[in-house]
Write a structure and sequence with these properties.
homodimer; 112 residues; DNA-binding; elongated; 5 helices; alpha+beta; Arc Repressor Mutant, subunit A
DNA sequence: TCGGTATTTCGCCAATAATCGAATTATATT
DNA sequence: AATATAATTCGATTATTGGCGAAATACCGA
C-alpha cells in the first residue's frame, strides 16, 4: 500500500473505470468484467493491482467475489498530493501556467 | 493535461522527487539533475512528462532552463480523486480494509 | 564568427506492464 | 461423487517505459 503502487494503480484508465463503477455499489468480478471488452483474466489482474494499492477490498460469497471501494488509501493519497504539491503550491512559489514572467523567448505552452 | 497523464506522471519516484525538490524553490534542469544518479537526458525526459502533465512549468533564462512547480494540475487532480473515491467513499458504501462484514448475507440493500 | 555551456533530441536496449487463451482452484448443487 | 459456475493463476506475446551515450540545438560572450 505504498505511494508508488497507489499512483501507478490510478494511472490506468481501465482501473479508474473500475473504481468509478464501484462508486455506485459493490459488484462481482464477473459483473465488473462485463463492462469491458477485455478478457476476464486481464480484469482479474487489474483487481489484484487495485487491491494491493488498497483501493478496493474483496469479499467472497459462494463462488462469486464481491469487490467494494475501500477508503483505506484515500488518506494516504491526499497526504501524498499535499506533500508533493499542496502547501508549497498554494503559497507564493508555484505558478499558474501562463502567469510566468514573460521574458523574451521564454516558455509559452510548448516551450521547446 | 489529462487525468491519465497526471496519474502516470506521479507514478514514478524520480518524478515525485523532482516535484518535492521544486517545493523548496525553483531549480534549473542541471541543478535538478545533480540530485539524481541518472543521465541528464533521462532527467530531461522526466521534465517533459511532468510538463505535459501540467505539474511544472519551464522558463528559459539564458542558456539555462528554470523549472517551477505549477498548480495548474492540482485542481484537476483533486477533482479526479474526489470523482473516483471521494464523495462515494466517504459515504456508507466503502469499507475500511479489515472491517468485518457487518452481517453476512444481507446488508446490501439490493444485491443486483 | 567561434568556442563554451546548458539542455534537449535521437537511436537503441533492457525491464516492466497489459493482454490473451488455456489450465487450475474454489464453491455450490444435484 | 460428478458437474457446473465463478474467478484466478499460468505461460506466452506484444506494447510501453526508463535508461544510456552520442549528436543536435540554443544561447552567451569574446
Amino acid at each position: 500500500m505504498g505511494i508508488d503502487e497507489l499512483f501507478r494503480a490510478l494511472g490506468d484508465p481501465t482501473r479508474r473505470e473500475i473504481l468509478r463503477l464501484l462508486r455506485d455499489g459493490d459488484l462481482s468480478a464477473g459483473e465488473l468484467a462485463a463492462h469491458f471488452p477485455l478478457a476476464k483474466s486481464t480484469l482479474s489482474g487489474h483487481f489484484t493491482i487495485l487491491r494491493h494499492a488498497g483501493l478496493i477490498v474483496a469479499e467472497r460469497r459462494g463462488t462469486t467475489i464481491i469487490y467494494s471501494l475501500s477508503i483505506g488509501a484515500v488518506e494516504e493519497l491526499a497526504a501524498a498530493v499535499m506533500a508533493l504539491l499542496g502547501a508549497g503550491a498554494v503559497g507564493a512559489r508555484a505558478k499558474w501556467p501562463g502567469t510566468a514572467p514573460r521574458r523574451k523567448g521564454s516558455e509559452k505552452g510548448e516551450a521547446r
